């Protein structure tokens, strides 16, 4: 069903990466090209700015900073991967408008317990121009929309996979949560024996540094090929089932502070450290509220922008408010499979829809019609018809298992997609050795 939920966190890290940053490097410094990504240049001024950001984040975490040259090259590699993704987003005609940036900034402010005005003042006090901050948010949104299009939208979870997961994991959904950090040493696609041996040697060197007492975050910052490496490699709190399968298999065997052996996946070699463990309290009450809803979905495309799609739904909403039949308009205008039923989605349980859709739906009273709502699938007009309390213990377990498997498969597919993208990207390094 088109409305199945993706579990991903939009701008989860941006709220902390983009706040309390140092001022950019002085304009008087000579700017030069430090790398060429396909046909696009990466400048030394951008690299200096990103190094300053990454160092500020590690300093706030009280992490020992890596050597200057090593860390600079690590940040440059992350910039190259980011630039390759942005180029792919342009090729796919993915665009982010100002309204989307405004909504994302509202989420960032809420996550930091600020109003937007307080967030703007804090950003300004830290020497970051508001326009620059908005551009950072735009980039994060572009990267997330690209992942949704290229990876998450292709992830499917079958009923058989759900049944097999619940059968083989009888203790699943216990609620135990783990805070972990990781290091990824990426391997090129189709690596030969010599490259694999070099990768194993690199992993042993990293493991040796950790065993000698070097901080995990510091080693991750100068060694990991994962996007979160320059932030110390921390993933944050997750229950075990929501971790990538490789990590989920090992994390339950670790004690807090313990580090795993290198583990192989299609993306490369992984090293995991368990930072903390806590009881998350299980999946909660068995009585859940179900919502009977219907919607009209309009998808964006190369010829229909976000602005146009939203305007079309605004016009449809105006017609419904003045007496037009929702079901008839859904049959004529919606591109969802539910259009033949007048947009009727039936009874929905918590977690059945993507977070953006569910949040908007939860705020509606029976009979009320939402403003246009954006999700990874497009733009929606939502109407809640009824609400009821229902004992959905078995069905809820399956829904939670579906969401867990979707996130796990999505994370693993994204790592593999990033590796393939990086391998296809032409890169010319011009960073002078120290």
Structure description:
By secondary structure, this protein is an alpha+beta fold. The chain folds into three domains: 14-150, Porin chaperone SurA, peptide-binding domain (Triger factor/SurA peptide-binding fold), CATH 1.10.4030.10; 166-283 and 398-429, Chitinase A, domain 3 (Roll), CATH 3.10.50; 287-391, Chitinase A, domain 3 (Roll). Helices cover 46% and strands 18% of the residues. It contains 14 helices and eleven strands. It has helices spanning 14-17, 44-60, 68-91, 98-111, 116-125, 130-150, 159-168, 193-211, 216-223, 245-251, 306-321, 326-333, 355-362, 393-424; strands at residues 33-37, 40-43, 176-186, 234-239, 263-264, 268-279, 287-298, 344-348, 373-375, 378-391, 427-429. Strands 4-3-6-5 form a four-stranded antiparallel sheet, with helices on both faces. It has a four-stranded antiparallel sheet with strand order 8-7-10-9. Strand 1 (33-37) and strand 2 (40-43) form a beta hairpin. Helix 2 packs across helix 3, helix 3 (68-91) packs across helix 6 and helix 7 (159-168) packs across helix 14 (393-424). The longest helix is centred in the last third of the chain and has 32 residues, at 393-424. The protein is globular. The N and C termini lie far apart (55 Å).
Topology:
Blueprint: H1 14-17, E1 33-37, E2 40-43, H2 44-60, H3 68-91, H4 98-111, H5 116-125, H6 130-150, H7 159-168, E3 176-186, H8 193-211, H9 216-223, E4 234-239, H10 245-251, E5 263-264, E6 268-279, E7 287-298, H11 306-321, H12 326-333, E8 344-348, H13 355-362, E9 373-375, E10 378-391, H14 393-424, E11 427-429
Antiparallel strand pairs: 1-2, 1-11, 3-4, 3-6, 5-6, 7-8, 7-10, 9-10
């Amino acid at each position: 069903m088109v409305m199945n939920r993706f579990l991903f966190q939009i701008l989860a890290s941006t709220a902390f990466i983009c706040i309390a940053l140092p001022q950019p490097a002085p304009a008087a410094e000579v700017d030069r090209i430090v790398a060429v990504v396909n046909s696009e240049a990466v400048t030394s001024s951008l690299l200096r700015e990103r190094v300053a950001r990454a160092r500020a984040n590690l300093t706030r975490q009280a992490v020992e900073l890596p050597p200057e040259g090593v860390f600079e090259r690590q940040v440059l590699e992350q910039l190259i991967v980011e630039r390759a993704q942005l180029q792919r987003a342009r090729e796919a005609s993915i665009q982010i408008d100002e309204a989307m940036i405004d909504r994302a900034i509202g989420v960032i402010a809420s996550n930091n317990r600020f109003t937007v005005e307080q967030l703007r003042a804090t950003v300004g006090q830290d020497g970051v121009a508001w326009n620059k901050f908005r551009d950072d948010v735009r980039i994060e949104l572009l990267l997330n929309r690209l992942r949704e299009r290229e990876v998450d939208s292709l992830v499917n979870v079958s009923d058989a996979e759900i049944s097999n997961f619940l059968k083989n994991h009888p203790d699943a959904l216990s609620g135990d949560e783990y805070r972990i950090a990781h290091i990824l040493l990426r391997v090129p696609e189709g690596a030969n024996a010599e490259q694999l041996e070099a990768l194993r040697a690199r992993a042993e060197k990293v493991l040796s540094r950790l065993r000698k007492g070097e901080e995990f975050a510091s080693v991750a910052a100068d060694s990991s090929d994962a996007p979160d490496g320059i932030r110390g490699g921390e993933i944050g709190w997750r229950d075990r089932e929501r971790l990538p399968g490789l990590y989920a298999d090992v994390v339950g065997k670790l004690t807090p502070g313990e580090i795993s052996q290198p583990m192989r996946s299609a993306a490369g070699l992984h090293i995991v450290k368990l930072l903390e463990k806590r009881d998350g309290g299980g999946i909660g009450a068995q009585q859940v509220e179900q919502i009977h809803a219907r919607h009209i979905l309009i998808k964006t495309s190369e010829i229909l922008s976000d602005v146009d799609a939203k305007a079309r739904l605004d016009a449809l909403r105006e017609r419904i408010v003045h007496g037009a039949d929702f079901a008839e308009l859904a049959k004529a205008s919606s591109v969802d499979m539910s259009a033949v039923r007048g947009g009727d989605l039936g009874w929905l349980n918590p977690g059945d829809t993507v977070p953006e859709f569910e949040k908007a739906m939860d705020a509606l009273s029976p009979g009320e019609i939402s403003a246009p709502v954006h999700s990874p699938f497009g733009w929606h007009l939502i109407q809640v018809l009824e609400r009821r309390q229902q004992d959905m213990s078995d069905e809820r377990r399956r829904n939670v298992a579906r969401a867990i498997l979707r996130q796990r498969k999505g994370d693993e597919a994204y790592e593999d997609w990033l590796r393939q993208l990086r391998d296809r990207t032409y890169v010319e390094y011009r960073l002078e050795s120290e």
